[in-house]
Amino acid sequence: MSIEMTKAEVPGVPLLEVRDLHVEFHTRDGAAKAVNGVSYTVDAGETLAVLGESGSGKSVTAQTIMGILDTPPGKVTGGQVLFRGEDLLTMSEQERRRVRGDKIAMIFQDALSALNPVLSVGYQLGELFRVHRGMSRREARAKAVELMDRVRIPAAKERVNDYPHQFSGGMRQRIMIAMALALEPDVIIADEPTTALDVTVQAQVMDLLAELQRDFHMGLILITHDLGVVADVADKIAVMYAGRIVENAPVHELYKRPAHPYTRGLLDSIPRLDHKGKELYAIKGLPPSLTAIPSGCAFNPRCTQARDVCRSEIPPLLDVTEPDGTPIGGRTSACHFWKETIHG
Amino acid sequence: MAEASGAAKRGEPILEVRDLVKHFPLTQGVLFKRQVGAVKAVDGISFELRQGETLGIVGESGCGKSTVAKLLMRLEQPTSGQILYKGEDIARLSGRALKAVRRNIQMVFQDPYTSLNPRMTVGDIVGEPFDIHPEVAPKGDRRKRVRELLDVVGLNPEYINRYPHQFSGGQRQRIGIARGLALHPEIIICDEPVSALDVSVQAQVINLMERLQDEFDLSYLFIAHDLSIVRHISDRVGVMYLGRLAEVGTDAQIYDHPTHPYTQALLSAVPQPDPDGRESRERIILTGDVPSPANPPSGCRFRTRCWKAQEKCAQEVPLLAVPERFKDGSTPASHPSACHFADEKDVVHA
């Protein structure tokens, strides 16, 4: 079967590549441009964090990759999603079903609404093996127990017939992870996997996710708004604002010297020890409405260093270099004045 | 601005909570209901809120922190214990006396989407407290007062006739704050006031709340699960676990010198927005989940997840007191901690 064939890594071709993706939603107020030319890649064993606030288009991009975007009202108006060089967007629905879950799987934020409340978790985990691998019910159930063990759910054998509401929030998220891992996919997209969880449980779940990613050598796309979680696990970061990527950087670089005023504003607004008692830095204004994205750079009304050119010209993603012109690997910024931002 | 009688001096306790308990009964049967147990949401906590300070309460979901907020507002009737507001026990009050006290204690809610009535204009929402306490603003004066309030929280007073859906999350939270300020309260209880907001907007609202505190000499009880925000805004912090206070102290004592294992684990679990040294950072990863408050462990409630737990922890409930070894008060570790084996531990934290 083609599964074995595609498992092999093709040299020079990224595992997953999103190329100039555009997605619109049809609304009463006109077209809401949720994604406006997003490109990123993720390789095996690599963790890409997509950082952004609500409405920045980070989840819509993920839904498009998975092929679970509601169309209508959503519509992909341009771009490609390449899995090992093959465009998922031009595939037939039948072909896509074979990729979804098997090659690319997703972990959702809210496990309670993502799981079916009237089916036991064992049934839902086993379903993957029955549908994709043609296993019998008995085999599938055994597999489900094995998976629940793998994500360290205590007494998996006894709990396999329990329903989602009988598990705690952290345990449910483990089941979500088990479900995503079931078919040993090459890429996992985790959309705010720990946002609904408490801090101590969040630490458990992130640990588990990182360990499994290492063991299976998967590519991980982590979608989040939490600068702490990103700093903990990411290899590289794409910062999104109003449907565009405004900055790409390896994790250490981004936190040390952001090259976009939006990223810098986000980092500056984290409460820090030495700022105790002083005012927090706050980015002024609000994220824009997607039906009325400001002309030029979308961030210009909130930016402290905006000039005329920022209001008229959309800044492209430019390569970021050291002051002497030496390139910095993997760094780009969509700011006309990135030099000032990064080098002061 | 504070025209309430007998205004307390800065630093003096304005609200004192003593052995506060709230048990929600669990019943069985349809016709003949009988109680089969109780969810011990709040199980004997004591603290004081001082004039002009911010007391932060942190803890995970289900630890009882929101129930505390509701008890202080008397939205819930405590099972036992006292809530002393300027020496008067709120828990015993009713009718006119309760109404008078409530004027001075207001609340800002977590979710700015559901805590504002979608069919009321901003003017009506912010002015509604005046309907209940007409003595604060005479009828003809109200629109003017509402406009002033909107201005104070940084909203355009022209928006007075708009509806909540016309505002963003951050702006709605400002409306909620304006409503809380309307009656010139002395205490504002904030239950997760920024957790529903976008990161870039949270800082704006926190700054506003700090400015208002200085301007109107407010005391805040600030309930949140975001440890770095609580540290930023609080003078003192209380850590709750399963209906009890585990540790109380100034922000520096709690964050830099925690002595309760739960506080240590909580702090070490917070992801740091700094990738440097992430491999070498020591983290305490707790096993398991928070036990059910309907059936909490005997003795110390944290013992089922604690790496220090011994026989004694299952038998004796540790009291919230300054640990014996730190009694001399010379170190920052000498603050109340409810652990039999309270000790400092080096962890990198928020």
Automatic annotation (TrEMBL), chain B:
Question: Do you know which PANTHER family this protein is assigned to?
Answer: D,D-DIPEPTIDE TRANSPORT ATP-BINDING PROTEIN DDPF-RELATED, TRANSPORT ATP-BINDING PROTEIN
Q: Does the keyword ATP-binding apply?
A: yes
Stored CDD domains: ABC_NikE_OppD_transporters (cd03257)
Q: Keywords on this record?
A: ATP-binding, Nucleotide-binding, Transport
Which residues are in the ABC transporter domain? 15-267
> Of which family is this protein a member?
Belongs to the ABC transporter superfamily.
GO MF term list: ATP binding; ATP hydrolysis activity
The record's section on SUPFAM superfamilies has:
P-loop containing nucleoside triphosphate hydrolases (SSF52540)
Q: Which GO terms describe its biological process?
A: peptide transport; transmembrane transport
Q: Which residues form a coiled coil?
A: none
Q: What is this protein called?
A: Dipeptide ABC transporter ATP-binding protein
Q: Which Pfam families match?
A: ABC_tran, oligo_HPY
**Does the UniProt entry include the keyword DNA-binding?**
no
